[in-house]
Amino acid sequence: MKIEEGVSRLAFFSSLYAEAKERLAGIGEELERNERQYRGDDRIDGSSERATAVRNITYEIVESEVSSDIPQPKVTAAEYSEERERLAHAIERLCVSVRDELPFEEMNDLDERFTYVLGGSVWLVEWEEGENGRGGVRVDCISPRDFFPQPELCRIEDMEYCFFRFDTTREEICRRYGVSPEVAADAEREGASEGIGETVTVVVCYYRGESGEVCRFVFSGDAVLEDAVGYFKRRIGDRHADAERPGKPIPLSSGGAIPPITSYLRGDGSVGRVPTALPYYEIDEFPIVIRRNTAADRRLLGQSDCFFIRPQQQAINKVESRILQKLMRGSVTPIVPEDAQISVNNSVFGQVIRLRPGESVAQYGKVDTTPDISRDVLEAERLYDQAKRVVGISDTYQGMDDNVGNISGVARQLQVSRTAGRLESKRRMKNAAYAKLDRLIFLYYLSYADECRELTYRDAWGREQNVSFNRYDFYRFDPARGVYSVDDRFLFSADLGQGTEIGREALWERNLANLKAGTLGDPTDPDTLLRYWQQQERAHYPFARDQVEYFRERGKGKEVKGENENQNGDGVAPLDALRFGDGEVPETADG
Question: pLDDT band at 572, cuts 50/70/90?
Answer without folding.
Answer: very low
